Automatic annotation (TrEMBL), chain A:
CDD domains: CYP164-like
Protein name as catalogued: Cytochrome P450 107B1
Family of this protein: Belongs to the cytochrome P450 family.
Alphabetical list of SUPFAM superfamilies matching this protein: Cytochrome P450
Source superkingdom: Bacteria
Listed InterPro entries: Cyt_P450, Cyt_P450_B, Cyt_P450_sf
Family matches, as Gene3D superfamilies: Cytochrome P450
Species per Swiss-Prot/TrEMBL record: Methylobacterium isbiliense
Cofactor: heme
Automatic annotation (TrEMBL), chain B:
Claim: Oxidoreductase is one of the keywords in the record: yes
Keywords for this protein: FAD, Flavoprotein, Oxidoreductase
Record-annotated Reductase C-terminal domain positions: 335-401
Organism: Methylobacterium isbiliense
SUPFAM superfamilies from the UniProt entry: FAD/NAD(P)-binding domain, FAD/NAD-linked reductases, dimerisation (C-terminal) domain
Pfam families linked to this entry: Pyr_redox_2 (PF07992), Reductase_C (PF14759)
UniProt name for this protein: Rhodocoxin reductase
InterPro entries: FAD-oxidoreductase/Apoptosis, FAD/NAD-bd_sf, FAD/NAD-binding_dom, FAD/NAD-linked_Rdtase_dimer_sf, Reductase_C
Cofactor: FAD
Sequence segments annotated as region (Disordered): 410-429
Keyword DNA damage tagged: no
Occurrences of domain FAD/NAD(P)-binding (ranges): 7-312
Gene: thcD_1
Length: 413, 429
C-alpha cells in the first residue's frame, strides 16, 4: 500500500512543478486509498476499467449556499428555492445519464466539426495578431501576452458573444474556471466570488439568449436557443445558460495550459522545437504527446454510488474517487519510457481529454488552437529561452499550468 | 526448419484472412494458400444486411482491409471437397490436392435455405449470406417492389427489414415466435424491438408461419400462404432462417465434424472421432465448436464477427507455437446489430438464462442495459443504444458475479428481475 498522504502532497503547491514522482509512488496501488477516505485511481488499466463504470457519478450538487438564518420563512421556503434554482444550473460536466446525454446531444448538434474547422483561418489570424503586437519585444510573458487571450476570444466568437462584450468575458471566464478546480471550490471566499460572478454572467446570458431567439444567426448560442432535438425537444433556459457558461470556461484555462505547457516542454526539449519549426506537419503528433506528457487536466473527481469491487480494493458506496488521468498517462505498464517526451511514439492512448462519457467536447477545437499557436511560436519567436525553469505555477493541482512563462527573445519574426 | 512448412487455410473470409495474417505475425514463413469457394477476395458480411441493402455501400466496396503484403497464394472459386488426414492434403473440387503441414479450417456457415427446394428456386426468393446474395437482393429492391416479405425475425431479418424501410419499401416481417429476436434476447426484451419495428412502419406479424411460397407460370414468386389460411402477396421474399455450418466436406475424413460444427479443444485444435487433437489442424470462426470456460453446458459455437477474428488469431498461435504456451481460448462472446437508428450490443451468452433485469436506463425509452442471470449468476448483458457500459458488465460476467450485477448506476431505475421469456426451443449461439 502506498503512503496514504501522497495525494495530499500532490495538492501541495510545493509539488506543482513536478508531481510525477508522486504519481509513480501512487501507482503502486491501482486504486490507492488515502487517509481522508478518497480513492485515487492511478494506473492506465484501472482508469480504463473505471471511466466507463456506471456507478461512478459526476453529479456534484453545490452545497446549500444559504446557511440557516433562524427565520423559518427564509430557511424553509425562500432560500431552499433559491438554492434549488442555482442547482438546476448544473452543466453537463456535473451531470449523469440520462440528463447528461440529452444535454450533450444538444451541444454536439451545434459544436460541429464544420463549425470548428471554419475557425481555422480566424485562429491563425488571431495568433498572428497577438504575436505582431510584440514584434520588437525582448521579453514576453507567454501566458499574459499570448496563451491567455486566445481561447476566450475564439470561444466568444463561436458562441456569438458580441465583440464589445468580450472583455467582460475574459474576467468572468478567469473567475469561473476555478469552479472546475476541485480544491478551489472548497474555499469559501472563492466560492462566494463564483456565485456573484455566476449571477452576473447568468443575467447577461439570459438577455443574450433572448436576443438570439429574436434574431438567430449562425452561431452556437442561436443554434442552442432555437434548435430542436427530435428526441429531447428544446433546451430549457437553465440548461442553456449553464451550457453556455460551461463552453466558455471548460476551454479556458485548459487551452491556456496546453499552449503554455507546450512551449515550456519544447524549450526543455529544443530538438523538437527545431523539428516543429522545420516540419509543421508533425504538430498533430506532437500535441497528442503533449496531452499525454503534460496534460492540462490532471484529475477529475467522481463519487461511488455503490460499492465497486476492483482486483485488490473495494471502493465503498459514497466514497469520493479521484481519476488521476495524468498518472495513467505516465504508467510504465502502458507506455514505454513514459517519462520521455517522444512525439514519435507509435501509440499515444492518453487520458488528456478524459475518457468517459464526459470526454472533452472541445477536443477538436483545442487541438486546432494549440496547433496554430505552437507552430506560429516555433516559427516566429527568435531564439526563445526560458527565464524561469521551473516557472511559477497557478495554485490548481487539477487544472495545472504555469502562472507566467517568461521568455527571453530577440524579437518576433 | 520453419521456412519449409506449408499452411493451407480453407475458407477465405473473415476467420480465414485474419488467421493467415496471424500465421505470418506468429512467424510462419512458408507458403500460405487460401482456399475459398466464393470467387471473391475476403469481404465483410455485416454490411450485407445493412448498408449494402439500403444502397449506401456497393457490394464490391466492402473488402476486408489488410490483405496486402501477406504473400498469400489464392485458390478462389475452388471449394474444398475432402480432407485426407493420413496424406495431410486437402482435395479441391478442381481436382487439385494441396498438401499441408498446418491447416486452418474456417469454412463458416451458409444460409439455411427455404425447406421446399422448388419454392426456394422461384425467382424473387432470396437468402442473405454472401456478397452475390446481397447484390441480387439489392437489385430486386432497387426495382421498388410493392412489398418485401421477410421470413424470420432474427438479427438478419430485422436488419433487412430496417434497410428496406429506409428506402421506403413496404415490408412484412413474419416469424412463428411471439417477438423478434426471441431466441437470443427472450420475448421480454424482444417486445421492445417489436414496438420499434411497428413504429418504423414494418408490418410485423408474430406467431405467423409461412407454409408455402406460390409462384406464377414464369417461375416468379407471387405470394406466401400462411398457416391457418392467410395469404400475402409477395413479389420479393427474403428467407432469413439462420445458418448451417459448412462441414460436409469433412465427412469421412476422421475429424469430428457434423451439423453442430467442427469439434475443437480449448486451443482450437481440431479433434478426431476419438476426441484426440489432430496434430497441425485447427479451426476457427462460425464453423468451430469448442469448450468455453464460461459455459459449463458443453461445447459452443458463436456466429459473431469479433469471435471469428479472435479465435482465428488463437488458432494461428496454436498452429505455429507450442500450443500449450498460450492457454485456452476464452474470449468473451460479443456481437452487435444495427437496425434503424438503434444499436444493439451484447456480451456473454443468454443461453439458458432464467431471469433478466434492466440495470440502467429504461425499456420505455428504448435506451437501456439488460442483464441476464442463470441460477443466480450473471451470464450476459445486452445494451440498446448504451454500448459504452458493456465492458464493465463483461468484467462482471467474466468474474462470475451474482445476478444482477452493477446495482447503483447513475441512471438506474427500479431493478426488478423478470422472466426473460425464451421460447421453448434451443437458443441460438
Ligand atoms: C448478413 C450478415 C450480417 C451479419 N451481421 C453481423 C453483425 O452485425 N455483428 C456480428 O457480430 N456478426 C454479424 N454477422 C456474422 C459474421 O459476419 C460472421 O460471424 C463471420 O462472417 C464469421 O466469419 P467466418 O470466417 O468464420 O465464416 P464465413 O464468413 O461464413 O466464411 C466462411 C467462408 O468459407 C467458404 N467456404 C465454405 N465451405 C467451403 C469449402 N468447402 N471450400 C472452400 N470455401 C468454403 C464460404 O463460402 C465463406 O466464404 C453477420 C453475418 C451475415 C451473413
Ligand atoms: C487543451 C484543452 C482542453 C483539455 C485538456 C480539456 C480536457 C477535458 C477533460 C479531461 C474533460 C473530461 C472531464 C471529466 O471527465 O470529468 C473535458 C470535458 C469537457 N470539455 Fe474540455 N478540454 C479542453 C478544451 C476544451 C474546449 C476548448 C472546450 C469547449 C469550447 C471544452 C469543453 C468541454 C466540455 C463541454 C466538457 C464536458 C463534456 C461532458 O460532460 O460530456 N474543452 N475536457
Amino acid at each position: 500500500m502506498p503512503d496514504p498522504t501522497l495525494f495530499a502532497a500532490v495538492k501541495d503547491p510545493a509539488h506543482r512543478p513536478d508531481p510525477y514522482p508522486l504519481y509513480a509512488r501512487l501507482r503502486e496501488s491501482p486504486v490507492a486509498l488515502q487517509d481522508d477516505g478518497t480513492y485515487v485511481v492511478t494506473t492506465h488499466a484501472a482508469l480504463r476499467a473505471l471511466v466507463f463504470d456506471p456507478r461512478l457519478s459526476s453529479e456534484d450538487l453545490p452545497d446549500a449556499t444559504h446557511p440557516p438564518t433562524g427565520n423559518p420563512f427564509k430557511d424553509w421556503i425562500v432560500n431552499p428555492i433559491k438554492d434549488r434554482i442555482r442547482s438546476r444550473h448544473r452543466p453537463l460536466i456535473f451531470r449523469d445519464p440520462p440528463d447528461h446525454d440529452v444535454l450533450r446531444r444538444h451541444v454536439m448538434r451545434e459544436f460541429t466539426a464544420v463549425r470548428v474547422n471554419a475557425m481555422h483561418a480566424r485562429v491563425d489570424a488571431l495568433v498572428a495578431d497577438l504575436l505582431d503586437r510584440k514584434r520588437e519585444a525582448r521579453q514576453i510573458d507567454l501566458v499574459d501576452d499570448f496563451s491567455y487571450p486566445l481561447p476566450v476570444t475564439v470561444i466568444c466568437e463561436m458562441l456569438g458573444v458580441p465583440p464589445e462584450d468580450e472583455a467582460r468575458f475574459h474576467g468572468w471566464a478567469t473567475q469561473l474556471a476555478t469552479a472546475l478546480e476541485p480544491d478551489a471550490r472548497e474555499d469559501k471566499e472563492n466560492r462566494d466570488k463564483n456565485i456573484a460572478t455566476f449571477d452576473e454572467i447568468a443575467a447577461y446570458m439570459q438577455d443574450l439568449i433572448k436576443e438570439k431567439r429574436r434574431h438567430p444567426v449562425d452561431d452556437i448560442l442561436s443554434g442552442l436557443a432555437t434548435g430542436h432535438d427530435p428526441q429531447a425537444g428544446r433546451m430549457g433556459d437553465y440548461d442553456l445558460i449553464a451550457t453556455a457558461i460551461l463552453l466558455l470556461i471548460a476551454g479556458h484555462e485548459t487551452t491556456v495550459n496546453l499552449i503554455t505547457n507546450g512551449m515550456l516542454t519544447l524549450l526543455r526539449f529544443p530538438e523538437h522545437l527545431e523539428r516543429l519549426r522545420a516540419d509543421p506537419e508533425m504538430a498533430p503528433r506532437l500535441i497528442e504527446e503533449l496531452l499525454r506528457y503534460e496534460p492540462p487536466v490532471h484529475f477529475r473527481t467522481r463519487k461511488a454510488l455503490a460499492s465497486i469491487r476492483m482486483d485488490d480494493t473495494t471502493i465503498p458506496e459514497g466514497a469520493p474517487v479521484v481519476l488521476l488521468f495524468a498518472s495513467g498517462n505516465r504508467d510504465p505498464a502502458r507506455f514505454r519510457e513514459p517519462d520521455r517526451f517522444d512525439p514519435d511514439r507509435e501509440d499515444i492512448q492518453h487520458f488528456g481529454f478524459g475518457g468517459s462519457l464526459h470526454f472533452c467536447v472541445g477536443a477538436p477545437l483545442a487541438r486546432l488552437e494549440a496547433e496554430a499557436a505552437l507552430v506560429a511560436l516555433a516559427r516566429r519567436l527568435k531564439n526563445p529561452r526560458l527565464i524561469d525553469n521551473p516557472p511559477p505555477y497557478r495554485p490548481g493541482a487539477s487544472l495545472r499550468g504555469p502562472q507566467h512563462l517568461r521568455l527571453a527573445i530577440e524579437g518576433i519574426a | 526448419m520453419a521456412e519449409a512448412l506449408r499452411a493451407v487455410v480453407v475458407g477465405a473470409s473473415l476467420a480465414g484472412l485474419r488467421g493467415a495474417e496471424a500465421l505470418r505475425r506468429e512467424g510462419h514463413r512458408g507458403p500460405i494458400t487460401l482456399v475459398g469457394d466464393e470467387p471473391h477476395r475476403p469481404y465483410d458480411r455485416p454490411p450485407l444486411s445493412k448498408r449494402v441493402l439500403s444502397g449506401e455501400a456497393r457490394p464490391e466496396a466492402i473488402d476486408l482491409p489488410g490483405q496486402a503484403g501477406l504473400d498469400l497464394t489464392w485458390r478462389l472459386g475452388a471449394a474444398a471437397v475432402g480432407l485426407d488426414l493420413p496424406a495431410r492434403a486437402v482435395a479441391l473440387a478442381t481436382g487439385e490436392r494441396l498438401p499441408f503441414d498446418r491447416l486452418l479450417i474456417a469454412t463458416g456457415t451458409r444460409a439455411r435455405p427455404w425447406p421446399n427446394p422448388a419454392e426456394a428456386a422461384l425467382s424473387g426468393v432470396f437468402t442473405l449470406r454472401n456478397r452475390d446474395d446481397a447484390a441480387a437482393l439489392r437489385a430486386a429492391l432497387a426495382a421498388k417492389p410493392a412489398r418485401v416479405l421477410i421470413i424470420g425475425a432474427g438479427f438478419i431479418g430485422c436488419e433487412a427489414a430496417a434497410a428496406c424501410r429506409s428506402i421506403g419499401l413496404s415490408v412484412t416481417l413474419v416469424d412463428p415466435t411471439p417477438t423478434p429476436l426471441a431466441s437470443v434476447l427472450g420475448t421480454r426484451i424482444g417486445r421492445v424491438v417489436a414496438e420499434m419495428l411497428r413504429r418504423e412502419g414494418v408490418d410485423y406479424r408474430p406467431e405467423t408461419r409461412v407454409e408455402a411460397l406460390e409462384g406464377d407460370a414464369a417461375g416468379r414468386v407471387r405470394a406466401a400462404r400462411l398457416a391457418g389460411g392467410g395469404r400475402l402477396d409477395a413479389p420479393v421474399v427474403v428467407v432469413a432462417l439462420g445458418a448451417l455450418r459448412n462441414t460436409e466436406w469433412l465427412a469421412g475424413s476422421g475429424v469430428a465434424a457434423d451439423a453442430g460444427g467442427v469439434a475443437c479443444d480449448g486451443l482450437c485444435r481440431v479433434l478426431d472421432r476419438a476426441g484426440r487433437p489432430v496434430d497441425g489442424v485447427a479451426a476457427a470462426g462460425d464453423v468451430a465448436r469448442f469448450p468455453h470456460p464460461l459455459f459449463p453446458d458443453g461445447p459452443v459455437a458463436f456466429e459473431h464477427w469479433g469471435h471469428a477474428v479472435e479465435q482465428a488469431q488463437h488458432a494461428a498461435r496454436t498452429l505455429v507455437g507450442p500450443p500449450e504456451d498460450h492457454g485456452a481460448y476464452a474470449a468473451m462472446p460479443a456481437f452487435w446489430s444495427s437496425q434503424f437508428d438503434l444499436n444493439i450490443k451484447s456480451v456473454g451468452l443468454t443461453n439458458g438464462a432464467d431471469a433478466v433485469a434492466v440495470t440502467q436506463g429504461s425499456l420505455a425509452e428504448r435506451r437501456f442495459v439488460a442483464v441476464y442471470g442463470r441460477a443466480g449468476r450473471t451470464v450476459a448483458a445486452v445494451s440498446f443504444d448504451s454500448a459504452r457500459w458493456l465492458p464493465a458488465y463483461a468484467a462482471r460476467i467474466a468474474a462470475g458475479d451474482a445476478f444482477p450485477p452493477i446495482l447503483g448506476a447513475t441512471d438506474q431505475g427500479r431493478v426488478a428481475p423478470m422472466d426473460p421469456g425464451f421460447p421453448q426451443r434451443p437458443a441460438r449461439g
